[in-house]
Design brief:
Low-confidence stretches: none
Number of domains: 1
Shape: elongated
Mean pLDDT: 94
Distance between the termini: 52 Å
Helix content: over 70%
Structural class: mainly alpha
């Protein structure tokens, strides 16, 4: 039977892989289209990738205690949302 920690880190790694693909697609689309706003989208997916890798790693190592990890992951979420919101504030 798969442990809860293994399942959690496995899902985080899958999410990270999807975030990596999305970041690459966003950066490549930026290169083709020249649209600066796609840099923010690519950056947001890159942060999402780092968050997912950190989460998967921490499940097994417990480098960061639970309360601190909640704060850290929330800060990652805030950064992702800011990066996704910034394109609406910038001109092309």
């Amino acid at each position: 039977m798969v442990s809860l920690a293994d399942a959690s880190s496995g899902v985080s790694l899958i999410v990270g892989a999807i975030a990596l693909v999305m970041a690459v697609l966003a950066f490549r689309a930026r290169g083709r289209s020249g649209n600066r706003k796609l840099l923010f989208v690519g950056a947001a997916f890159t942060v999402f990738l780092v968050k997912s890798l950190f989460s998967a790693y921490n499940v097994h190592t417990h480098v960061v205690v639970h309360d601190a990890i909640e704060l850290g992951l929330s800060l990652f979420d805030l950064l992702i949302l800011v990066l996704l919101f910034l394109p609406f504030l910038t001109k092309d």
